[in-house]
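Hello,

Our lab assistant flagged a job as stuck in the queue for most of the afternoon. It eventually completed. Since we weren't sure the result was trustworthy after the delay, we are filing this so someone can double-check. Below is the sequence as submitted and the structure that was eventually returned. Let us know if re-running is recommended.
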Amino acid sequence: MTGTGGSVRNRKAKAVPADPGAPTVEEVDTDEAEEIERTRQEKKRRAPRERVEDEDGYSPWLDVLRVLTFLIVASCGLSYLVSGGESFTWGLRHPPKYLSAQWWKTQLRGPVYMTLEELAEFDGRNESKPLYLAINGTIYDVSSNRRIYGPGGGYQFFAGTDAARSFVTGCFAEDRTADMRGVEEMFLPLDDPVVDAHWTPEELAALRQREREEALRKVHEGLEHWVKFFENSPKYPKVGYLKRDKDWLEKEPRRELCETAAKGRKKRKIPEDK
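-- returned structure --
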């Protein structure tokens, strides 16, 4: 004990070690705390609005579309089963190509490539095989019209081959070929010395050139008409293409104009100013 005039010496407090298991509390800056609170309140306010927007975005038309799609698919599937795989459209006479079972089979299988010899096996004589014809190198299935394209039908000469020439000349039996050389002659006038004397040699040469150009145009249009007919017909699905050598045409003998087409040729008409 010290005297009254002495001083009291305080002891230093011992440092208490921190409990490692106790949670630590981080001090947060005031501005940061305000930002956290503001964000939390904003989320609370935004949630109900988002739910309303989700409800507003719902449309009954989506359900209607789903139901209609299901009904169409179910109807096509049932028709396919009932018809034994022949039709998706309950036997409609001329349904669109994409509703035909054969069209889908062709899309999934891909185009078929055949030689003329292979194509000849599908001329209708074997009823267990489909009936094919080709025009301008493209093969079509005409099985839906065996009465016309099959044996004994009016167009039987088109089956089992590419008879593009006969589509223009009209000589079905004689012109069962795709060789179009010389077909333009059916649209050319006949030369006649008496009639042709009304033109000078130069005029006649120029006239003949124009006549040939016009004849070639008519051949092109005539063939194009039938090409588009089969291409756009819902009754005759495209099967594939013919396989030919690049020089196949040079190997073919040049044909004379068939009698029926030749009979249609006339002499030139003398113009009034001649």
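-- support follow-up --
The delay was a queue issue, not a problem with the job. The result is valid. The beta strands are 112-114, 132-135, 138-141, 238-242. Residues 201-232 form the longest helix (32 residues).
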